[in-house]
Amino acid sequence: MQDMGIDAAKTGMLSSTHIISVVAKSVKRYGFPLVVDPVMIAKSGAQLLRDDAISTLIKELIPLATVITPNIPEAERLTGISIKNIDDAKVAAKMIVNEYGAKASVVKGGHLNLDESIDVLYYNGTFKEFKSPKIFTKNTHGTGCSFSAAITAELAKGKDIISSVETAKRFITNAILYGLSIGKGHGPINPTAWLYIPAEKYHVIEQLKKAVEMLESHTEVASLIPEVQMNLVMALPYPYAKSVDDVAGIPGRIVRIGNKVKASGAPSFGASSHVARAVLKAMEYDKNIRAAADIRFSNEILEIIKNLGFTISFYDRREEPPEIKSKEGGTIPWGVEEAIKRVGKVPDVIYDPGDWGKEPIIKIFGKDAVDVANKIITIALNLR
């Protein structure tokens, strides 16, 4: 505090009466905004706050809290209220403010048996609910700590309590969604996803721009553009690529104009469906394969690909199960998986001989968009 100052602070596991008293005295002395995370019980069920310390927490520290963030078991322990639903959570949140003296209370609803995770904030005489989809994962280690830390960081920036909790809710939902499977027990959440995903999106777009420039600068590539046109895509890295919205492509695709190649638009996320689904399926087998493009099918092109030493596989739509064929968007993932199983790995090339009303297509896979563009250009330069 005497060196650089404190704009806001949070508490975590304090364990004993003496520690809580020392912390309370320091907070009183300096008067900074305080977020109290009343850590009482570990995920293993072990007690982290001694029984005699609970009354000290209630009497000395909670009255100093700008925001307190108990989960359901902690709120039950603090208030003596059995919390079975959102209405019970509201009663507990209000009690912690009106009777114990906290400025605001957030009772976290992750332990409730609901389809959503609903956190209840009581502040300034009113309730506000913060909702997110329930994420079923064992990688939840650090959830409460990171949530309270995010609120603290927002308060330190000068944000108000409601917007601080709102941002923290989005932050922690993202961190849980991209949690890391490390070790045998509860894996950690991934708070770096908040920064990592925007950074990776920028990298993907730059890669695609460079790859498109390469393709557009080689007129030979025009001979590889299929009737359905070409799309070139690149996904976010594992574990961030979960849907087609996490894969960037070219809106309107890459088209042939005379003997030239031209992208119809600037790369953007969610701009591809078919090729994006192919990449997502390939990533399930090899996390390093993050890009793909489709080119024209011919036996001559296949022969060139073989001579270049690329690994090749295929799928036959005639073998597609009826339940897959009837499912919108099911063919491509099924086909890619079948092709991978034929060779035991993700190949450089997967071809589809086509079917009634379906143009035969060759898909080129690679570790990034530039890698795929290089493969396409090499094929084009060998095509007479």
What report would you give on this structure?
Helices cover 40% and strands 17% of the residues. The chain has helices at 17-30, 51-61, 72-79, 86-98, 143-156, 161-177, 193-216, 274-285, 299-307, 322-325, 331-343, 369-381, and strands at residues 9-11, 34-36, 67-68, 104-107, 116-123, 126-133, 232-235, 247-249, 254-257, 260-263, 268-269, 291-296, 312-314, 349-352, 361-366. The relative contact order is 0.08.
Distance between the termini: 74 Å
CATH architecture tag of the largest domain: 3-Layer(aba) Sandwich
Highest CATH level, the class of the largest domain = Alpha Beta
Share of helix among residues?
Answer: 25-40%
Integer count of domains: 2
What is the makeup of the main sheet? 7 strands, mixed
Q: What is the subunit organization of this protein?
A: single chain
Net shape:
elongated
Strand order of the largest sheet: 11-8-7-12-15-14-13
User: Averaged pLDDT, please?
Assistant: 94
In what range is the share of β-strand residues? 15-25%
Write down the secondary-structure element order: EHEHEHHEEEHHHEEEEEHEHEHHEEH
DSSP helix count?
12
**CATH homologous superfamily identity of the largest domain:** Ribokinase
Number of strands: 15
